[in-house]
Design goal:
mainly alpha, 185 residues, globular, 8 helices, 0% strand
Length: 185
């Protein structure tokens, strides 16, 4: 199961990392599915469900993303901002261990959601780049180690978590640069 989810992480991660905004702009339903799926996976994982149930959650939220992408665009941006904030919060938690992990992630998610409404395109680029980078890095690590890297990451149990965070941020910056450098068509 770890290899299958690792491959899914890597494929979805690369798509979001390099083409997240373009997919959103061109095919909002596909972006709604991908963003909804990632959001669903994160939510189901954070509440402590197994990988199988988290994948089911990803499918459920992905399908909901297809149906509601146009009509709830603000919710989509809030979700992306919250996801962006939650990922940053998960990575920053080892530096803020004096606070409960759930509180750190929640605060970062709320701040990310609020900031997302200020600038939609940059939020979508930042969110898809960071989500894509996170999925790609954890997916590659999962393929190499054959262990549930997402569970270790969300619980702050990765060896060298700071290194993972640096690699994720660096890859996200590359993805954001690639996405920003594309002209609007």
């Amino acid at each position: 199961m770890n290899y299958a989810t690792g491959i899914i992480y890597v494929l979805a991660g690369i798509i979001l990392l390099l083409w997240g905004y373009k997919l959103y702009a061109k095919t909002i339903k596909l972006a709604g599915f991908l963003i909804g799926a990632v959001f669903g996976f994160v939510v189901f994982t954070l509440i402590g469900l197994t990988t199988v149930f988290s994948l089911i959650g990803a499918l459920i939220f992905g399908v909901l993303g297809i149906f509601f992408a146009r009509s709830v665009e603000i919710a989509l941006f809030l979700s992306v901002g919250a996801l962006l904030g939650a990922i940053v919060g998960m990575g920053a938690y080892p530096l803020l261990t004096q606070f409960p992990q759930a509180l750190v992630i929640f605060v970062f998610a709320v701040v990310g959601a609020a900031l997302s409404l200020l600038a939609k395109r940059p939020t979508m680029i930042a969110g898809t780049s960071l989500a894509g980078a996170t999925l790609t890095v954890l997916g590659v690590s999962q393929l190499i180690t054959n262990s549930d890297m997402w569970a270790k990451f969300k619980n702050g149990q990765l060896e060298n978590q700071e290194f993972y965070l640096i690699v994720i941020v660096a890859l996200a910056l590359v993805g954001a640069i690639v996405q920003v450098s594309r002209r609007k068509k």
